[in-house]
Amino acid sequence: MNYPAGSTLTVGKKLYTLKQFHFHHPSEEHVNGHDYDMVVHLVHADAEGHLAVVAVFLEEGNANPFIDLLWQNLPTEKGKAVDVSGLTLNAKALLPADHGYYMFSGSLTTPPCSEGVTWYVVKKPLAVSKDQVAAFAKLYPRNARPIQAANGREILETE
Question: Is the pTM of this model over 0.85?
Fold first, then answer.
């Protein structure tokens, strides 16, 4: 989902602007071998084009009203974009209250899998219902890249 200009992420002295967000089923990231039902990637870019992606896990629990709103506007066919006018979204609804995260340098998870992406993987998942996961999986069954080896990458963690 492409996002209009305005939402930003500040890391140190760098300012990133949210460009788009998208979902994967199942999660493309694991924590200590644990995977999640889904993940949302919020893709940001700075003025020089450097990318920062915030990954938020989604796990089965209570229905999520924001996800309901998004799913009501999903394309009915995979790969067919739809323009939804008159809908205002606040991507902050995709962030849990606790912003603790893991950070590492990696790559995009979709071709061309470009390197040099800074990843922020939020520790606390958001709840989505079993039906919400199933509705996404019906259109996008297993649209996740396999887990990649850390290859010596340092993974930092907030407290």
Answer: yes
